[in-house]
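Action item from last week, closing it out:
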Amino acid sequence: MLYAKKNKTMKIIVSFFLFLTVITSIQSAEPTNLKLHWSNNILTISGHHLPGKEIKIHYLEAYCRANSHTTDWTNHTVIKHKTKLVSLNENKTKLILLCNISDGVTVEHLITSTHDEIDFNLTAYNPTKKKSEVHWAQPCIRVGKFTGTATNTTKDKYAYIKKSFVYLDGKQTMMPTQEWATEARYIPGQVWVGPGVPRTDVNPRPQHPSTTSNGLIGCYSADNSMIFATAFEPYQELFQGVIRCLHSDFRLGGLKPKEKLNIRGKIYIVKNDENLLLNRYQKDFPSHNKLHLKKNTES
């Protein structure tokens, strides 16, 4: 009888430890959320499962005026602003920033992370009695480490272009694409103007003649196992930059007095499954389909 009780007790203990082992293995298999950090206008996304371990974003690089494609960047286009950190939660997955722009506009940034995406929810507000000069803004996303083309890997600062893509004629197109533009006030780089945006109001870099088929711009990781992509709504332009960077620059459009505008954005860092990426993008930005369809029909 005593032996039976001991045997039963041992079975319970073994079962309990097996249960703990299974739970622990399940938890360890679950991907960890990407971490957020912001300091000195640099937003850092980090994670052990992230190719290159981190992505840095100049956030925000600039708020900009209209009539910017042929004018001086410093003396005309850029509007001064200051950004401050409002809060960061203990898990480093929820970040709030506040931008104060010199013409009075404020922009609050709520930035949150999961294991494979960063969500941006912005509220721009013009509390003044005059129309704002701010038409667009650019987060400068550095993808050198992600693509395996960082400064410690290659001296060719444009090597990442061959890992990067936009969508033209309804399909993913790797850079440099056909009809690659090479002339502008400042070179190099490549700008794809957003649907309905005046070509005079975008980045003063070479403009691609085509309108993209959607609002995604992205690249592949060094080993091609993962895809980085980003989109904003409303957006001004997609831009292949000059600091191993890619942009989806968002649009403010010159806020009227007391006007408030919501701006949404995503960074996707997903496994190499283009259909999965496109399905998520189309679900997150359903209005982009109509926007691009209308523009391409007009063209």
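Closing note: Residues 1-30 form one domain.
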